[in-house]
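Each field is set out as follows.
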Amino acid sequence: MTGPDILDDTTDDYERLETKLVAQDRDAARVSTADVDERSAHHLVDELIEDDVVTPVPDQRILVHDPSGEGFDSIIQLAVFHRGWTAGRNADAEDD
């Protein structure tokens, strides 16, 4: 027998394990936005308005996310966007 025993070759197992671990790391790093309900969205947006991160434009009935310049007509969309935007900015800061 000149090559490695095919039964002792664990290369495929190792690659599957690595793929699974990488996927778990990505999942852990992602911010969950599925748990944004109307109540939590209102609370977050109220805080963002107080902190001058969001500007309401009453005559157009939109909320503008000042750091990004994006406008939203839904409080929930704004809350989800801000969570993702913040997570992206934090991930960029960690990479530097």
